[in-house]
Amino acid sequence: MIAMVDEDLGGVGTLDALFEWRVARTPTRDAYRHFDETGATWIGTSWRTLSLRVARFKAALAGMRMRPGARIAILLPNGIDAVCIDLAALSLGFVPVPMHALDNPASIAYILNDSGASLLLAASAAQWLAITETGIALSELRTVVVLGKDAGKPATANTVSPCSLDAWLSGAPADLDLTVRYPSPANLAALIYTSGTTGRPKGVMLTHANVIANVKAVLERVKAAADDVFLSFLPLSHTFERTAGYYVPIAAGCCVAFARSSKLVMQDLQTIRPTILISVPHIYERVLAGIERKLAESPLKSWLFVRACRVGWRRFARAQRLPSSRATLQTIPMALDSLAWPLLDWVVARKLRAQFGGRLRLAVSGGAPLPAHVAQCFLGLGLSILQGYGMTEASPVIAANAPDDNDPSTVGRPLLGVEVRIGDNRELQVRGLNVMRGYWKRDEDTARVLVDGWLHTGDQAEIEAGKIRIVGRVKEIIVTSTGEKIAPADLERAITADPSFEAAYACGDNRPFIGCVVVLSAAYWERLAAALKLDPLDAQSLEAIPARAAVLTRIRDLTSSFPSYAQPRAVALTLEPWTVENSLLTPTLKPKRINLSEHYAAQIDRMYKQPPEPRRS
Fold first, then answer.
1. Distance from the CA of 102 to the CA of which of 126, 168, 486, 523 falls in 20 to 30 A?
2. Element at 458 (helix H, strand E)
3. 487-609 homologous superfamily
4. Radius of gyration from C-alpha coordinates of the chain
5. Which CATH class is domain 44-183?
6. What does each C-alpha distance from 180 to 30, 60, 176, 226 come to in angstroms?
């Protein structure tokens, strides 16, 4: 294990105390950097300056005179304001409810209503207007604050009139007693909504003690220092980013730069040149896919790249003493690899590392499985990727590899203070201070996953030599390469409720978005083909772009109540019935997911090679 960044951190018990501790220790160092559009430059914010802005948010919150435990909904992009409202709410004993700024209005309205949020901070008045137009009653919402000077007007007389952030901050009473009142470690530190086996997201109740325990355990496994720089681009509503990319840097005193957008991440990597990157597998897959597209134009460069990956991976495997690679390593002389590597490193590997800024020393991957070929390629070329495993209900990190103990075929060893065991049906079960209190207003759901203090993860696993290898799922849940979890059965039921569809199969495991294969009813296909002037008897008509676009529009209307990340963004069409006889259905007429994925492998691959429809806002 690597020593804690600072022994004094051991006495910190709440997240707001963690922030005050950091400000006192390194007040003048940069806490954050953001891109200023007006000056077209990156601007740093020190810990002391940040604390002054947090105090303004704290005064505005205190002026609302809400009860301790009031829920504060945060619907903001990553940035200083999102950090300030979170820290201010925590310091007053309120409960942040972070939400994805790009989620659809119906999903947001559901979370606002379910959490009983008293205050909403939104990115724009237009976003608030879209929420009100869902028609979902928000009876406990008292105040809506939006970024920008033009707050806009309410949609109807029954909705809250939004005010601008500047007006809200300036309106704080001057006579408030802002004496610091640290909450108890047992108090809630967040309600984080995550989708599970039901169609509706559930609010995971995480306490200060849960998150602080996870922060300390992460720093025991992976060392971060005050001169490290993070690039933040995963949403702060994502528990992985929240703990590893937000609270851990506070504990370690690192600087976090907020990426301008997901589209500009690669450019921001070049400018910020981070030393630590917290990411889901999709970013690594995206980089590798771009490299492979360019290499396809040059057989020589492609040959060199493959050789560099193979030689580099063998060197890495030897250094880590990986048991799974011993047979291969014995057939290739170590001396030969040692001779070849300096040239391959200069010609190939350093160019890949340069795409991440050139000084990245740790790249952490979580939220979804990292494909083996991606891990081996990057590790072989000198990019230290550490795969971990977790879930929102565990704050979220359960296990992780370490730089000197890194087997990418596993998710590493459990963190310090985290107990694991294998239960019935090979299910991984977890116990520790990081495990949630339960689900918000969902006692039955809580009782199903928390049994005698053990969290039932729903993932099947093996534990070998102390390391965890995830081998499957007890219940089928799609985990995209961006870390989102979707229950496919709920999505499929929503689609097949329309008689136009005989059957549906949602896919997207380890892919960047959800896709869908649907069996069209004969009547619907004849009408649609006629409208589009297609031959319904020609199998190629099912591949026609207008046909797929029309069907996708219908599907997205049927799934509009789902979060935006759960709605299909691509579709493959078929008229072939699914039956027990052709092995696509079980005897109880449930879809055989593995068989369907194999049967439609070619169509699914084509679906993901084409540009997807954008998410609905």
1. 168
2. strand 454-464
3. ANL, C-terminal domain (3.30.300.30)
4. 25
5. alpha beta
6. 24, 15, 12, 26
